[in-house]
Amino acid sequence: QNSKPLMEKRRRARINASLHQLKVLVLDALKKDSARFSKLEKSDILELTVKHLKSIQGQHMSAAMATDPTVATRFHSGFSECAREVSRYLSSVDNFDESIRGRLLNHLNRCLHQ
């Protein structure tokens, strides 16, 4: 019984240490002065991390497209096939709201053409 509070304390310490490391890494990558961001909330650190990772992912996609022009075509083709599969699946679901199906497919189509 006494080990549970100790385990929880250690778990929280690991989480806080990891969040601190994320903060340092992300602020350094974004060329921000960590002294000016000493009081970031945990949610802010996580949001900055997600934003930074998405940025890196976009850079990797751009680099891949620059070295292999078929990357965009293959991505587009795969996305289209996925949208068709979603449409087929939703058509097979009994009593599925057609307006939701239409909105979802319209959303996927807009994403495809961005």
UniProtKB/TrEMBL annotation:
<keyword id="KW-0238">DNA-binding</keyword>
<protein>
    <submittedName>
        <fullName>Hairy protein</fullName>
    </submittedName>
</protein>
<keyword id="KW-0539">Nucleus</keyword>
<dbReference type="Pfam" id="PF07527">
    <property type="entry name" value="Hairy_orange"/>
</dbReference>
<keyword id="KW-0804">Transcription</keyword>
<dbReference type="GO" id="GO:0005634">
    <property type="term" value="C:nucleus"/>
</dbReference>
<dbReference type="GO" id="GO:0003677">
    <property type="term" value="F:DNA binding"/>
</dbReference>
<feature type="domain" description="BHLH">
    <location>
        <begin position="1"/>
        <end position="56"/>
    </location>
</feature>
<dbReference type="InterPro" id="IPR050370">
    <property type="entry name" value="HES_HEY"/>
</dbReference>
<dbReference type="InterPro" id="IPR011598">
    <property type="entry name" value="bHLH_dom"/>
</dbReference>
<feature type="domain" description="Orange">
    <location>
        <begin position="75"/>
        <end position="108"/>
    </location>
</feature>
<dbReference type="InterPro" id="IPR036638">
    <property type="entry name" value="HLH_DNA-bd_sf"/>
</dbReference>
<keyword id="KW-0805">Transcription regulation</keyword>
<dbReference type="InterPro" id="IPR003650">
    <property type="entry name" value="Orange_dom"/>
</dbReference>
<dbReference type="GO" id="GO:0006355">
    <property type="term" value="P:regulation of DNA-templated transcription"/>
</dbReference>
<dbReference type="Pfam" id="PF00010">
    <property type="entry name" value="HLH"/>
</dbReference>
<dbReference type="GO" id="GO:0046983">
    <property type="term" value="F:protein dimerization activity"/>
</dbReference>
